[in-house]
Amino acid sequence: MAVERRSKPHYKLDCWRLAFDFVPVAYDLAHQFPPEERYELASQLRQAATSVTLNIAEGAGRNSAAEFTRFLFIARGSVTELDTIVLLAERLGYISSIQTDQAITSLDRITGLITGLIKSLQPNS
């Protein structure tokens, strides 16, 4: 992947890499939604997935740990949003329980990595 050849700070973060890898999963899941959801829940799923990677990247490009931490909190909130959208999609019958379990497992891993990074950036940690 071309990403590995570049040296931007966020490319080195495991949380960004996993979130980046989740975006196509989110798009694949959204593609399974019925046409009437194209501009509703499916759109929210795609936007939340991209928001995670974008906020991690933006925060990594900021000048202070406090700013980076703020963007990581936003990214973590988007992961929580994704979790809820995936659960709703299963409840509505748009995706299977296996797909839900796989997505939630990935999202839990991303959340853990973001939380660990937040803790490492906070003073006295």
Automatic annotation (TrEMBL):
It comes from Hymenobacter glacieicola. This is Four helix bundle protein. InterPro entries: 23S_rRNA-intervening_sequence (IPR012657), 23S_rRNA_IVS_sf (IPR036583). Pfam families: 23S_rRNA_IVP.
